[in-house]
Amino acid sequence: MEKGFVFIDEIVPQVRWDAKYATWDNFTGRPVDGYGANRIAGTLELADALQKAAEEAAVLGYGLLLWDGYRPQRAVDCFLRWSALPEDGRTKEKHYPHIERREMVEKGYVASKSSHSRGSAIDLTIFNLNTGDMLPMGSGFDFMDERSHHTSDAVTVSEARHRKLLCSIMERSGFIPYENEWWHYLLKDEPYPDRYFDFPIS
Hints:
two-stranded antiparallel sheet, Muramoyl-pentapeptide Carboxypeptidase, domain 2, alpha+beta, globular, 5 helices, 202 residues
């Protein structure tokens, strides 16, 4: 692990996680380069802020479920190569039913340089601590569509309320939302704003 980085669960033991890019359950349909372990990593500053968010959520009866944190640059490069391949339809319906694979970059769903590779971005949702159920948010993780935008009017009133709840917890904990993805947040005072890391998660 690079100096200054940690596995989030070592600092925030109450979180749940499912590192999607270490599994076959992601938009590429296979484990992604650089994800050798199903763990969520990030900067120590990210972990400290997530501890605050977890405490804020717990007071309200919720927990945090993490999908991605630090993302090696080699994983970003893997996304770019994949987006240029011919369509095979394997993950299109679940993740990008209304756009073409090659449009992911221009529409802002895949970037050649990702804030995740700086170690202080997180993809997450919230779940009910009593039942363990995730709150309905109107779309799934990595659903590349306007329905996933924070301001989408295609979701129900309760789904919009859940998004606002997550957003308020994260903003109070020092994070900035990304307009196109309700699940993506960036630490406002990130420690490495100009560095993109490429060490593998292992």
